Amino acid sequence: MPEHIKQKLLGEIKQLEHELTHELPAEIKKAVAMGDLSENAEYHMAKQRQDFVNARLGQLKKRMAELALVNLSNIPRDRAAFGSTVLVYDTSKDEKIEYKLVTSEESDVSKGLISTTSPIGKALVGKQVGDMATVVTPNGKRELEVLKLATIHDETQAEAEAGK
Questions:
Q1: Quick one: how far is CA 13 from the chain centroid?
Q2: What angle do CA 108, 99, 78 make, to 5 degrees?
Q3: SS3 of residue 162 by DSSP
Q4: What is the pLDDT of residues 49-97, one digit of tens each?
Q5: Are 37 and 59 part of one and the same domain?
């Protein structure tokens, strides 16, 4: 898992755990002290927020566990997968576009960072140079031809050689 993604998720987890164990109990205690809970908006809002924070914490911890299971040795060396940089020719737009396949937390379409779970990411995963990928979008189908591919292994090796 990329270190900056891990830190981002851990930061959000820490902030939500603090809210859950310190801030919300104080809000609930203050609201309870006001009396009648059936018509106490502050109490109901604090309880709703508590439920939301608990659910979000569950999602974040599950995502951390999923990302921890990513094993680089299982990522193919000859096909597009997580961490790959792919240069494609979009036949519908008649242009070359470069995408980097990343986690959903890192995705930023304006920078060419495409999640492996997005429609384009799903279409490119498993493709090799010369393959065509069909992407179904709200505007119709797009055909992408893979022109160039650099996997996460190629990039890791290039970084290691540059560091020598």
A1: 15
A2: 135
A3: helix
A4: 999 999 999 888 887 777 766 666 667 788 898 889 999 999 888 999 9
A5: yes
52 and 85 housed in the same domain: no
Co-location of 91 and 154 in the same domain: yes
Distance in angstroms (rounded) separating the CA atoms of residues 152 and 161? 14
The pTM for the full model equals 0.60
The rounded distance, in Å, linking the Cα atoms of 56 and 13 is 9
Judgement on whether residues 44 and 125 belong to the same structural domain of the protein: no
Q: Quick one: tokens of 69?
A: 């299971």
The amino acid occupying position 73 is S
CA-based radius of gyration for the chain: 22
CATH number for the domain harbouring residue 136: 3.10.50.30
* Residue 136 β-bridge partners: 141
Pair (79, 153) in one structural domain = yes
Distance, CA of 43 to CA of 152 (rounded, Å):
50
Look up the domain containing 9 and give its range. 3-69
**One domain, residues 103 and 22:** no
Handedness of CA 57, 2, 123, 100 (dihedral sign): positive
